[in-house]
Design a protein that fits this description.
Elements: E1 27-28, E2 51-60, E3 63-69, E4 73-77, H1 84-98, H2 103-106, E5 126-135, E6 141-150, E7 154-162, E8 165-171, E9 179-185, E10 192-198, H3 203-210, H4 216-233, E11 235-238, H5 242-245, E12 249-250, H6 263-273, H7 275-288, E13 295-302, E14 305-311, E15 317-319, H8 325-337, E16 359-363, H9 372-386, E17 391-397, E18 410-414
Helix pairs in contact: 1-4, 3-4, 7-8, 8-9
Length: 416
């Protein structure tokens, strides 16, 4: 596929080592995470919980040749127009593809992801490229995807690799058919197996269902694919909308939505399910809300709906509808950091024990509406929760000077 003048159905570029990253990559002030060795745990072992350690934007929207290292707590910083939100959109897109979503659902406006200077080839094809690295028990596993955006949306090429070996590779051989030719490593009587896969879904997400695992090579392919899928699937993109959080929420399953509209309904559930987590949430609100906070409760307002209320301790009660936008955003983000896949509206990997999963929270404009006190309190809470290994946070901020003093926070400066 083409992002400039290259053939649209051409192969993915050859793998590059960390040392081969072009100097034009627009990431500064932090070292690039090597892709030849997994990020070590405290005792030097490979991480048990799969997680995304690097995001690659080879040719995506305004990015070319950009590699973004990701830690447990990462802040993408830079002025408006530098591509912070675009990087987060790419991360979320890969997560949705890893969960089995169709390409059209993930990219409703694929042309917006094509670099502006990308020229169509002779067949009028243009597209974009993105990828990531998942660290985990299998070591670093790389996924690179080439997407054709015009004239029709389809996956033009995909590569899954680990330890210097290509485990899965797909290519668009016949543009007239809605499929790609896939080749995966077997190390059996024949070195590879070939089959057709649909061109509107990520092949890596389909591999565990298609590969039998009868040879050592196939078992390696399945293990690498599962590590990538587990790392991608437990992602929650959080975008609190204060105007909706002021409206009483209907009681239901109690899973927090992306916009946190149903925050009150979720609080009605979490307050009774886990007293310790609720106490931590109340402590967090004491640090981020004006005035005294003794407790947080919910009240039924009729019609099967509830509202959230701050108990002040002197008999006064303040409904969340009276809180400022910054207080509501702070409360929503604090609750997200203190919960898990069972409470958030994500698709957890049911076949993997929760203790072996890591929830990754994406928060665009993390500091929006927050005053300095709230920003500092939220970052301290994020650092404390991320250190436990069950949760990771990747957020965007315009200016990260206030966050650089927090040792656990990794700041990645994206330059326009």
């Amino acid at each position: 596929m083409s992002v400039s003048s290259q053939p649209a159905a051409g192969p993915l570029p050859a793998q590059q080592s960390s040392a081969a990253v072009p100097p034009a990559a627009r990431v500064s002030s932090v070292p690039t995470v090597p892709t030849t060795a997994p990020a070590p745990t405290g005792d030097g072992r490979r991480p048990v919980r799969p997680s995304i350690g690097e995001l690659r934007l080879s040719a995506f929207a305004g990015h070319r040749g950009v590699r973004v290292p990701l830690g447990p707590l990462t802040l993408l910083a830079g002025p408006s127009g530098c591509g912070k939100s675009g990087a987060l959109r790419a991360f979320e897109a890969l997560a949705r593809l890893g969960g089995g979503a169709e390409l059209g659902e993930v990219f409703p406006d694929p042309v917006a992801c094509v670099p502006e200077d990308a020229r169509p080839d002779a067949q009028q094809r243009r597209g974009f490229r993105l990828g990531c690295t998942a660290d985990g028990p299998e070591g670093p596993v790389r996924l690179d995807v080439a997407v054709q955006a015009e004239p029709a949306l389809r996956i033009a090429g995909e590569r899954l690799s680990a330890g210097g070996r290509v485990l899965l590779q797909t290519a668009l051989r016949d543009p007239r058919r809605p499929s790609v030719q896939a080749t995966w490593y077997t190390a059996g009587p024949t070195q590879v197996t070939r089959a057709a896969l649909p061109d509107d879904r990520l092949g890596t997400a389909l591999l565990p269902l298609r590969v039998s695992g009868s040879t050592e090579g196939e078992r390696r392919v399945v293990a690498a694919a599962e590590q990538m899928v587990v790392a991608l699937r437990s992602v929650f993109a959080c975008a609190p909308r204060p105007v909706r959080m002021r409206v009483p929420a209907p009681l239901g399953a109690g899973r927090l939505m992306r916009g946190c509209d149903n925050l009150a309904a979720v609080l009605a559930r979490t307050r009774t399910e886990c007293g310790r987590r609720h106490a931590l949430f109340v402590d967090a609100l004491r640090a981020g809300c004006a005035g005294p906070v003794a407790d947080v409760v919910t009240e039924q307002v009729g019609g099967g709906r509830v509202r959230a209320v701050l108990v002040r301790g002197d008999g006064r009660r303040t409904g969340f509808e009276r809180l400022g936008d910054g207080e509501l955003r702070y409360a929503a983000l604090a609750l997200v950091l203190l919960t898990g896949p069972g409470v958030l509206e994500v698709d957890p990997v049911g076949e993997v024990p929760e203790a072996l999963q890591t929830l990754t929270v994406l928060a665009d404009g993390l500091e929006t509406g927050l005053d300095p006190r709230q920003r500092a309190a939220l970052l301290r809470l994020a650092a404390r929760m991320c250190e436990r290994g069950h949760i990771r946070l990747t957020g965007t901020v315009s200016d990260a000077s206030w966050a650089r003093s927090v040792h656990a926070a990794r700041v990645v400066d994206l330059m326009p």
